[in-house]
Every structure is written in C-alpha cells, then in structure tokens.
C-alpha cells in the first residue's frame, strides 16, 4: 500500500514509522522546518512497544514529487487543517483516500465537502505521544490504537487493505463497523478530558482528588452525549459511564495532549474541539453551558494560530 503521511508529528511519524517497519511504502510529506529536522536527526521512535529508527525515510516537501498514493494519513492539528486542503485535493486526484485521525468532529464534514464523500474515511487514535527536541517520537502510553472504518460504502476494500497491512505492525489496529459512533465517543471523551485538564492546568490525578472538580466531568460528558444524540449518534449513559471509568483508571500523572501543549506554551486546539462543539450545537439549537464555560476558560491560553 502506498501511504502518504501528511502531518509527520507525534501521531503521523509514529504510525508512518510503524508501517515502514513492516515494509510498507510510506512517504512523509512535510514542511521545510520539519524536513530539515528529519534530515538532521531522522525519524525515530522511543517507545516501550519497541524502539525503532526509520533507516532511510522517504521525505518530500512538494506534493508534485508524489506520483500516486492509496492512502493519506492526515495527522495535523485542527488549526492546520485549512493549510492542507490543496495538497489533499492533489493527492485525492492521484487516487488516494484520506484517513484523518485528528481529535474532534468538525473536520469530517469540512473534508467531505472539499474532497467528496467517497474520499474521506473515518479514523481516530488513542495514544499518548509527543515529539522531543530532535523531533523523535516519545510514545509513553501502553496503548497505540488506530481505529478506522468506512464513511461511504465504496471505501470497504481500502479499509480492509489497511487492516491487513496493519495486522503485523506494532499498532493497536481496529477496523470498526461503526466508526461514526466511535468518532463521537472519542469526541465526548476528549472534550471532557482536555477541557478539565487544560482549564484547571492539572493532570487527572489532582482533579480526581477534588470531588467538586471531578463532578464537572460528568456534566461535560452528559452534555456531549446530548450533542451526539442531536446528530443522531446513539451515545448512551453507558458510553458516559465507560468514559468516566476510563478517567478514573488513568494514572495520576496522565493528562491530555491539549494540556501538554498548554504546559509547553504551544497553540491549543480549543477552537477545533470545544469551539467546534459549540458551533455544532448552535446549528441544532442546543446550549452547552459546561463546554461554553470551559472554552472561555481555555481561550486566553490558545495562543497565535501558526
Ligand atoms: N499527541 C497525542 O498524544 C494525540 C494527538 N491526537 C490528535 O492528533 C492530531 C495530531 O496531533 P499531534 O500528532 O500531537 O500533532 P503534532 O503537532 O505533533 O504534529 C502535527 C504535524 O503536522 C504538521 N503539519 C501541519 N500543517 C502541515 C502541512 N500543511 N503540511 C505538512 N505538515 C503539516 C506539523 O508540521 P510543522 O512542524 O511543519 O508545523 C506537525 O509536524 C491532533 O488533532 C491531536 O489532537 C490524538 C490522540 C493523541
Ligand atoms: C486522551 C488521549 C491521550 C487519547 O489518545 C488523546 O487523544 C489526547 O490527549 O489528545
């Protein structure tokens, strides 16, 4: 399978390297700064699931240098989505399907509108990873899940092929029969988790120490469940309970990637995640007071768009 990784950061470099490790043809399409960093330090994974260095990574800076592709793994931050659109159109014209694994939901209808419904798969990831100062991936969670599925019936053979090639890779791969539900379930979880950790500037262990603070999470999840239901996604109280149990089971120091970005002074995806939820709610006449409040609390730390 010819795979292009667009967004060779913490997630893109991780999964791209894991496919390279099992012999797949992976091209990393990057911007100038990242290209320079990769030329200097390579693409390397520091992971308890297995250290790995891509021996001779295929790195390009121009989409025109790519002849054809079967799949694009899209792993940019929400605030960089607009900047990838021309590149994605070009790759779709060369035959590729796009697998976005951004957190959130709003990017799905945007990509479908821009690229056509047949071209956009559903995808998400559960992993905790970041780049160190050499641009190497530091993967710190025991899990490294990549979940994908069809959003259009014509995509079945591509997801089956993706499933086949991922089977032997060090990836927790899953071909989902209900990817829309999984996307919303993750969206519910991540808005609550990133909201509470980033707004309070605390990891989950500290939050759990204060009942009044942890109780907010429950309201948050309920609110996002209502939003999902408004879009005919059948999330239930059981999904909320499972999300709460997941948060109760995380190690004390665990925190969201958005909170990690706040600690590093990086741009936050709060407009894509919480802002996106508020826009989706407005469209169907819902109010999300907890999400709105959290959005307001995080906004001052959002930083400049880059
Ligand atoms: N990190 C994590 O643990 C998790 C993250 N996620 C989600 O995954 C998504 C990606 O996050 P993450 O991997 O952490 O982000 P990173 O910031 O580590 O990586 C994003 C990469 O995208 C690149 N990029 C942006 N625009 C372009 C472009 N036009 N062309 C080429 N490359 C581009 C950036 O490159 P440049 O250096 O040029 O800016 C950067 O390397 C987010 O939505 C996040 O919420 C989900 C689960 C866990
Ligand atoms: C919760 C987690 C770590 C799971 O992948 C995540 O998606 C994030 O923090 O962005």
From TrEMBL:
Domain Ketopantoate reductase C-terminal: 179-300
Lineage: Bacteria, Bacillati, Bacillota, Bacilli, Bacillales
EC numbers on record: 1.1.1.169
One Pfam family per UniProt: ApbA_C
Pathway: Cofactor biosynthesis; (R)-pantothenate biosynthesis; (R)-pantoate from 3-methyl-2-oxobutanoate: step 2/2
Catalysed transformations (reactions): (R)-pantoate + NADP(+) = 2-dehydropantoate + NADPH + H(+)
Family: Belongs to the ketopantoate reductase family.
Domain Ketopantoate reductase N-terminal: 3-147
Record GO biological process: pantothenate biosynthetic process
An example Gene Ontology CC term for this record: cytoplasm
Keyword set includes Lipid biosynthesis: no
Gene Ontology terms, MF aspect: 2-dehydropantoate 2-reductase activity
Native source organism of the sequence: Terrihalobacillus insolitus
Biological role stated in the UniProt entry: Catalyzes the NADPH-dependent reduction of ketopantoate into pantoic acid.
NCBIfam families for the chain: apbA_panE
Protein name stated in the entry: 2-dehydropantoate 2-reductase
Top-level lineage group: Bacteria
């Amino acid at each position: 399978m010819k795979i292009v990784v667009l967004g060779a950061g913490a997630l893109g470099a991780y999964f791209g390297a894991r496919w390279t490790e099992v012999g797949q043809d992976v091209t990393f399409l990057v911007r100038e700064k990242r290209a320079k960093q990769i030329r200097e330090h390579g693409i390397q994974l520091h992971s308890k699931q297995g250290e790995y260095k891509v021996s001779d990574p295929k790195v390009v800076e121009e989409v025109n240098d790519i002849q054809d592709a079967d799949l694009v793994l899209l792993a940019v931050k929400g605030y960089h989505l607009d900047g990838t659109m021309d590149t994605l159109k070009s790759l779709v014209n060369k035959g590729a399907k796009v697998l976005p694994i951004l957190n959130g939901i709003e990017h799905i209808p945007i990509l479908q509108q821009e690229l056509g419904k047949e071209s956009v798969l559903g995808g998400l990831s559960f992993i905790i990873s970041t780049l160190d100062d050499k641009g190497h991936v530091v993967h710190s969670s025991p899990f490294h899940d990549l979940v994908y599925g069809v959003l259009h019936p014509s995509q079945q053979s591509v997801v089956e092929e993706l499933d086949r090639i991922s089977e032997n890779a060090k990836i927790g791969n899953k071909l989902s029969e209900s990817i829309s539900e999984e996307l919303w379930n993750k969206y519910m979880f991540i808005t609550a988790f990133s909201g509470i950790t980033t707004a309070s500037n605390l990891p989950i262990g500290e939050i759990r120490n204060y009942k009044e603070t942890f109780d907010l999470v429950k309201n948050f999840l309920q609110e996002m469940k209502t939003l999902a239901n408004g879009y005919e996604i059948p999330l239930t109280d059981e999904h909320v309970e499972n999300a709460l149990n997941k948060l109760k089971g995380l190690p004390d120091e665990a925190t969201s990637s958005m909170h990690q970005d706040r600690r590093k002074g990086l741009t936050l995806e709060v407009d894509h995640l919480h802002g996106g939820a508020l826009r989706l709610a407005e469209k169907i006449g819902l109010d999300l007071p907890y999400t709105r409040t959290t959005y307001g609390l995080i906004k001052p730390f959002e930083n400049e768009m880059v």
